[in-house]
Amino acid sequence: IKVDLTDDGFTHIDDIVKLIFQYIKLIRVSGIQQWIYEEQSRLSEIEFAFEDERHAMSLVSKIASCMRHYPMREILSGGILMEEFDPELINFILNMLTVENLRILIVDQTSYYKCNLTEEIFKTKYGCEKVSSSVINAWKFCGLDNDLRIPEKNLFIPENFDFHPIEN
Predict the structure, then answer these.
(1) CA of 71: how far to CAs of 39, 42, 51, 59, 85, in Å?
(2) Between 109 and 100, whose confidence is greater?
(3) What pLDDT does 166 receive?
């Protein structure tokens, strides 16, 4: 799960992680919904069909990266298009999203003072710290937040992109 934070968000990381675990719990309780998958699949198809033109180097870099993860027929669409609804796979992944499997990577240019270690090859500064057991327990036993909801169906996802001639 990737989350981009505002400056204010960096001061509430523990609360944000708790909200993420509450939403995961909501998904578990609500069950896997095929219509949500189909919506996301349609949105990814639209994104793929109308993707902005890339510079040659950017396109080659993306393709080279995809070649490691996808068969040749999927190197352009890999990581974008969703091919089949598999609730068992979704549940498997959902069950892996636990506090016990959590690793938080914070990339922040203003927290240089927390970087007390140096990476061996590139000499990049970084820091590691343990999350307190009280915070871990707050995430683990977070319960459901009544303000969180599974979204309603999006009625505004277009289905037809046919061109219509302009009359004189």
Answers:
(1) 25, 22, 21, 17, 19
(2) 100
(3) 86
